[in-house]
Amino acid sequence: MTRRRIAILISGRGSNSVSLMEAARAPGFPGEIALVLSNRPDAGGLARARDEGIEAFAIDHTAYADRASFDAALHEALVARDIDLICLAGFMRVLTSEFVERWSGRMVNIHPSLLPLFRGTNTHQRALDAGVLIHGCTVHFVVPELDAGPIIAQAAIPVVPGDTAADLAVRVLAQEHRLYPQALRMICDGDARLENGRVVFSEGWSAAGSLRSPG
């Protein structure tokens, strides 16, 4: 089996990148983390990747005149390392449509809400303000429109009386750390793939259960 070469893009501590690196170390995992790359030289996640023996460096976006030139440098670095798949993990840059189209079907992101609800930022407070009883996270393919790509996997948590945005952030992040490696495995195995703008799954699952809140 040929393992797919994966690059993780981060802007900070990269907690999701850690969960992906740990998952990829497991025997039989169908992908390898070949690169961790940040747009910020001070990103804490770079040091953790180096400790794992993974190539890690920054392309400082402030050194480029515009988004297009930064994205061109980013693309060149990824191609030079034969990257097959990009995982965005707290990468706080809006990528140009040209870059996204180049990596169509080969770039995924994790977002802290149950998309299509609460695209963008400040998702946990917005969930509380909306009064939802179920919140969570989503792994999706990246498209030019922000947080609008086809959904690969989701995980849900209950919202309970007295919850704060910080409470939700902690519980959702714990689910992110479980969901992202699972979704990455599905993609690398070919069990989830993008076809004609939709995610196609190779295997079905039981729909007999239910998720309730309160419950």
TrEMBL record:
InterPro entries: Formyl_transf_N, Formyl_transf_N_sf, GART. Its EC number is 2.1.2.2. Keywords: Purine biosynthesis, Transferase. The keyword Transferase applies. The active site is at 111 (proton donor). Gene3D superfamilies: Formyl transferase, N-terminal domain. N(1)-(5-phospho-beta-D-ribosyl)glycinamide binds at residues 14-16. The record marks 147 as: Raises pKa of active site His. Pathway: Purine metabolism; IMP biosynthesis via de novo pathway; N(2)-formyl-N(1)-(5-phospho-D-ribosyl)glycinamide from N(1)-(5-phospho-D-ribosyl)glycinamide (10-formyl THF route): step 1/1. GO terms for molecular function: phosphoribosylglycinamide formyltransferase activity. One of its GO terms (biological process) is 'de novo' IMP biosynthetic process. One of its GO terms (cellular component) is cytosol. (6R)-10-formyltetrahydrofolate binds at residues 67, 109. It holds the Pfam family Formyl_trans_N. Residues 5-184 form the Formyl transferase N-terminal domain. PANTHER family: PHOSPHORIBOSYLGLYCINAMIDE FORMYLTRANSFERASE. Catalyzes the transfer of a formyl group from 10-formyltetrahydrofolate to 5-phospho-ribosyl-glycinamide (GAR), producing 5-phospho-ribosyl-N-formylglycinamide (FGAR) and tetrahydrofolate. This is Phosphoribosylglycinamide formyltransferase.
